[in-house]
């Protein structure tokens, strides 16, 4: 039985990597042998798919992904070609990703299946990972037929020259730049509107009814609608997450105030969660939480 974790731990110790190992493949990679996710610093290995393979083949895929981890996290170990290449992901179907500021922007390349396959296989950071995995596993298990076959499968006989990738990376840069611009324009034309669910024994909340009746677009703006729970902590988390998701041009947060007969915009906000009145009465939220003058954002301004 091949001990993935032991080899993984030894490699991380050797190179000073602080990453995780998972055998639960992320969505979209269920049929892949492995992948390394830069965002969550995790090497994923499809142990189920590899269960009938010899140890040398299992080790090949493990060290292939660990090499990718090094490419991302220890770039000083690599030349300029690999450091540039690792910023791009080109898949068999032409789907591409460009890593910028820790996030991936997506686009698509045109071309026939054979051309796109060669682009994927010949990426400098992929060939580097294949070469490294082959040499590493060869030193451990010898140059077995299974290892040579696996290495040959992922190593193109006719590599693409660096000039091809200069051109392809330039195309991806332009496409992802256009995509990012469109996304930013979309966010700049978005208004985030929030409302609350019923609370305090009420069976409905008028703000929820207003939210449901708002159109998806109004006055040239896209309306991004979010219904918030009347829970101090969860409400804060969902509101912040919605803002981070759309980066809206404006935010309108609707709330219910019993007894008022008109819309009354609030002009002051305080960084306080409080469910205790001056006379000692307590009104917990819908989750039963009743904070007493606790900060919404710890360390933030009052």
What does this protein structure show overall?
The chain is of the alpha/beta class. The protein has two domains: 4-181, no CATH class; 189-302, Aminopeptidase. It contains nine helices and ten strands. The protein has helices at residues 4-15, 55-73, 80-85, 113-121, 124-141, 145-154, 162-188, 206-213, 232-246, and strands at residues 20-22, 34-37, 42-45, 88-90, 95-100, 103-108, 190-196, 217-218, 221-228, 250-253. The strands form three sheets. The chain has a four-stranded mixed β-sheet with strand order 8-9-7-10. Strands 1-3-2 form a three-stranded mixed β-sheet, covered by helices on one side. Strands 4-5-6 form a three-stranded antiparallel β-sheet. Helix 1 packs parallel to helix 2 and helix 2 (55-73) crosses helix 5. The N and C termini lie far apart (59 Å). The model has no long low-confidence stretch (mean pLDDT 90).
Can you give the mean pLDDT?
90
Strand content: 15-25%
Give the strand tally: 10
Derived structural class: alpha/beta
Distance between the termini: 59 Å
Q: How large is the count of helical segments?
A: 9
Largest sheet features = 4 strands, mixed
Poorly predicted spans? none
Shape descriptor reads: elongated
- Would you list the SSEs in sequence order as H and E? HEEEHHEEEHHHHEHEEHE
Helix content: 40-55%
| Radius of gyration (Å) | 27 Å
Total number of distinct structural domains: 2
Q: Name the strands of the widest sheet in spatial order.
A: 8-9-7-10
Task: Give me a quick take on this structure.
The chain has a 4-stranded mixed β-sheet with strand order 8-9-7-10. The protein has helices spanning 4-15, 55-73, 80-85, 113-121, 124-141, 145-154, 162-188, 206-213, 232-246, and strands at residues 20-22, 34-37, 42-45, 88-90, 95-100, 103-108, 190-196, 217-218, 221-228, 250-253.
